[in-house]
Amino acid sequence: MSQNKETEIQLQYIEKCKELLAKSSTKRPTFHIQNEGCQMNSIQTESIAAIMEKMGYEMVDTEDADAVVFNTCTVRENANQKIYGHLGHLKSIKREHPDMKIVLFGCMMQEHHVVEKIRKDYKYVNLVFGTHNIHKFPELFYRTLQTDDQIIDIWKESDEIVEGMPTSRKYSFKTGVSVMFGCNNFCSYCIVPYVRGREKSREPQAIIREIEELVADGVTEIMLLGQNVNSYGKTLETPVTFAELLKEVEKIEGLKRIRFMTSHPKDLSDELIQTMAESRKICHHLHLPLQSGSSRVLKEMNRRYDKEKYLELVNKIRKAIPDISLTTDIMVGFPGETEEDFQETLDVVRKANYDTAFTFIYSKRSGTPAAGMENQVPEDAVKDRFSRLLTLVQEKGRENSSRFQGSVQEILVEDENREKGTLTGRTQHNLLVHFPGEKDLIGKYVKVSLDTCKGFYYFGHIVEE
Ligand code: 5AD
Ligand code: SF4
Per the confidence metrics, is the pTM higher than 0.85? Predict the structure, then answer.
């Protein structure tokens, strides 16, 4: 079926839901939606929220609503536990409010054991779907409105990308745009390839068209999103590199800033580094997950680079773009990680000069190769390493972030702080800056002097509006 035809059908289901809801009550129904996980999930959550609003629902902050929707994540076990906690709480609300519809979707729902548990222990959940049929939400929800039976619809795979579904965004001036879905890397600890499926890239024309429309609607900063953007376009009928896509995006008039994530070190090309260095719009910020500094552990993780290659890459990037801000993801406690391996991780943190690093404790995900590895690291050793890593990451982060002290940077103003008359925005390096200013500057670019570095953020003052 053509993508437009599918979108057309789903738009009709939105209308059908709207009619049904209008018939069943004179009061405007409410919905509550929550997002777990990555920025790609956030975009899908925003789309579901936009669809619910089109159906006639009003968004509310509390779980005591006519419909409660969760977009789930399963990268680490604690996100799963959080969902079960929420469901327990919802059970008591639903006892008082039996018509409430509970909807679960996203990555966690692609796991067989999760769906079986929901089928057996959480019968009051109304609708469950996964990551491959999110575009079917209006149709599935229409069925949900007509029955009290639990509806579960999980697809194993899909090679279809449906374009043009309704969407909304948190900020009028910046947003994320997915350029690809899924992942083919199979890092041995990671569940993403199993729950998000094989890598699929959107056609460059569809991406450009979406960004042009966003820019016409007031957006000036976009974040191109994918699990591994550096392998964008390889599976398209006419292959395109990510750098080529960036060059096309750069041409869009009115667009001021381009960001992207996530980059896999093994695929980061010289072409991309050069494109970034020559661009006037691509922000000087790169998120480059390290995971571990030990070449032995990296091999076990199936990351396909080693410590030396990673550090060489960092040097190459810094040479081409001297003011680049590097951020990363690091994991401790991967099976078999020794103190020596961990020391290698600390060594990379000392050498790579990250502005920020997101640190994680390894979480065993069933079905991944690492889950079957025998030498799991004892919990107390993991906790001890995690706290030592955090201390170093924070110390280095403070040191590196302070390199802009006293400079004047262009800031995109994002919010007014709780304290009235003070604003918050970001430099192209993704550093947060607080400064006095009026609310009407939100969404605008101003030049700010970065006066005092407070660790991970700055206090400054406007020098030019
Ligand atoms: N355990 C802990 N952290 C993980 N990540 C991915 N899988 C796991 C896991 N099983 C982390 C990686 C990745 C980030 C998005 O989440 O560091 O880069
Ligand atoms: Fe997971 Fe590795 Fe793919 Fe990232 S690149 S999503 S860590 S398999």
Answer: yes
The closest residue, in CA terms, to atom 18 on ligand 1 is 329
Residues 179 and 305 placed together within one structural domain of the fold: yes
Distance CA 433, CA 420 (A): 15
User: Can you point out the beta strands (E) in 9-50?
Assistant: 30-35
Give the model confidence (pLDDT) of 325-348 as tens digits: 999 999 999 999 999 999 999 999
- Looking up tokens 């041409």 gives 251
The verdict on the CB of residue 386 being under 6 Å from ligand 1 is no
Residues 394 and 413 in one domain: no
Position of tokens 């899909």?
158
Residue 3 has pLDDT above 80, yes or no: no
Tens of pLDDT along 136-145?
A: 999 999 999 9
Give the structural domain span for 345.
Answer: 174-403
Taking the alpha carbons of 309, 312, 317, 320 in that order, is the dihedral positive or negative?
negative
- C-beta separation of 265 from 309 below 8 A: yes
Residue 335 CB less than 6 A away from ligand 1: no
% of the chain surpassing 70 pLDDT: 99
382-396 confidence digits (pLDDT tens): 999 999 999 999 999
Are 303 and 444 in a shared domain? no
Residue 301 shares a structural domain with residue 321: yes
Distance CA 60, CA 417 (A): 22
Is residue 398 situated within a structural domain? Answer: yes
Co-location of 398 and 423 in the same domain:
no
Q: How far is the CA of 313 from the centre of ligand 2 (A)?
A: 19
CATH number at residue 430: 2.40.50.140
**Pairwise CA distance, residues 82 & 15, whole Å:** 33
The structural domain count of the chain equals: 3
How distant is the alpha carbon of residue 265 from its chain centre?
A: 18
Task: Tell me the CA–centroid distance for residue 108 and ligand 2, in Å.
Answer: 16
Atom of ligand 1 nearest to the CA of 291: 17
Residue 169, in any domain of the structure: no
